[in-house]
Amino acid sequence: MGAWWSGSVTTFLHTPPDLLCAALSHKVVQNRFQGEPQQVRAWEAQIDLLRDILPTIPNAQGWQVLFEFPIPRLGGRIDTVLVSPGAIYVLEFKIGSSSFDASALSQTEGYALDLLDFHAASRSHPLIPVLVATDAPPRAQTTPLLLPLGVTEVQRVNATGLKTLLTTLAVLTAHAENPLIPAQWEHAPYDPVPSIVEAARQIYATHSVADIHTARADATNLTQTSTCIASILEKARTEGRKVIVFVSGIPGAGKTLCGLKAAFADGSDRTGATFLTGNPTLVSVLREALTRDTVSRGQKRPLVEQRMESTIQSLTKFRDHYVGRPAECPPEQVMVIDEAQRCWTQAQAVRKSASRHVKLTESEPAHLLDIMGRHDGFAAILCLIGHGQEINDGEGGLACWGEALLSRPAWRVEAAPDVIGTGDLTHLPATLEAGRQRFLHLGVAIRSLREETAPRWVNAVLNGDVETARRLAAQTDLPFRLTRSLDDLRAGLRHRSRLTYRCGLVASSKAKRLRAEGLGCEVPHMDDKAVSQWFLNRWVPNRDIRASDALETCATEFAIQGLELDFVGLCWDGDLIRAPSGDCWQPRRFSGTKWANVSSAEAKLWRLNTYRVLLTRARYETLIWVPQGCADDPTRDPETLDRIADFLMTCGVPLLEPAAPAQAFTLQNDLADLLQD
User: Fold this and answer.
1) 115 has pLDDT over 50
2) Max CA-CA distance within the chain?
3) CA-CA 20 to 30 A from 337: which of 175, 301, 472, 655?
4) Helix, strand and coil in the chain, % to nearest 5
5) Nearest to 458 by CA among 447, 469, 449
6) CA angle 149-154-159, nearest 5°?
7) How far is CA 425 from the centre of its chain?
């Protein structure tokens, strides 16, 4: 990790431009990129412009200049980074451009936000993204609001305006309390944590999780878990045995990443493993994301789509295919099952298949074990287990897997210690012979980038443990905010997502009275195309109303489980309320014209798990909207909704505050005042 060329301003000014271009061109060849004449011309123009500007900036001799600084998570490189003791300038040049188009603005801001999140030396100083369209008309320029840390609004300047902008900001940031050492900035730790879609693309291309990092030192077991899985599979392969591996973890800890690693492990043979999930949205989004990524590198879409169909499969279709063909053995010797605890019980399997062409006679775990058991010698099943993720009736949990394994002794069992024991739905039975591997549990959330306590706080809230929730909230900047206004929810999401981050609205599938509030349109989670567009298309810059960040449609727990957004707007309805006594959660279902209480213990658990899923989908922050209700509508009783909001605030959720208006003043007037001081 490092820039293609870096040095102090003094070194930069004393290096002949042709040598700089030669060094950058050498990096093109070294990194196996295709060198193009227009790229060399762009470097020449940037170098000439900076050689003209930098000598005029006060005290800039010790600044660091970096060309082509890589941002691998976004698949790009920053044209130029200027590092001063008081600020980091992210410069994106559009040589010859006469306009500031939306995609360039988004690209520039995205680079700066990536540095803020993942580059250790960029977290305590202003990050100033600057888009330089060299031939754009002059525009009224204002200085950004410079906070002690964070990313300012993207500054838009032409070639002439860049000199005035950098000179003004150099004076404004000249007296930093904790100044940077510019020459050391490049060598600070850079640990990008990709989203699940970004990670899938990266793993598919490199077959490794080694480059998927977290900023927290205690989250090292992502690689350790993958290594442990690989070791277990290799031993079973060598011995010609069948093995089933249970990997557990808290929401957002990286279970799916480990599963994808196992499914994509062998770059020379894509048929050696398959990734199965009963979650159709995860299938469609990952397939489409990998297809788009692979096609962009020049491969034919029909061939790529065919390959993806065998690499990432619907568990339901895989199951029915082989149950209906009892003599056929699947070509894959390794099966990865995402959210394996959601597999059907025997009763559910029989009931659900009664009217289908393929009739199921046993539980899903039993059928899957028998399908993979058709292999002579080695076969492996990797079960990814999410605690508290059962969200539908008929899901048998780990107990269902344990029951099937007890009658199939040919399968060796390796599991995380926390999934063995108590005899309930969420554990394998203690009587099942199993190896216990501590690295098969992922206990640190890497989805929540800014605060790892979020899953523990969610558990406390849903358990009604106010004391624990308040204590956790007091220890950190809780990544949750509460509002009673849908307009404020949308405004808050738009403000936070800016040009680059992804946001979206989520709600329970049982939230039937949100439509009275003007929000009743769900993403059809069984429609592959609609789901892929919601997760992968963008509102900015294309104004695509199908995208999540258009904030027009809600994803339910069925569409969002296993996936994530940067910022989430959770729309809380009357399907999960605080009981009138105030001492517990009361799930409800809407029937006819009124709400009815849910009494079944399992149904109550599923509803709590629904909100557990919805509360743990954000990489950065979740904004919770609880409607005000309407006194004239008993299905939206204000007092009932107030109890939900009051409880969340009691548990430590602060109110969503509107963003303060940015302070602006002209560069020319401010520069004149500063230089007179």
Assistant:
1) yes
2) 88
3) 301
4) 40, 20, 40
5) 469
6) 125
7) 29
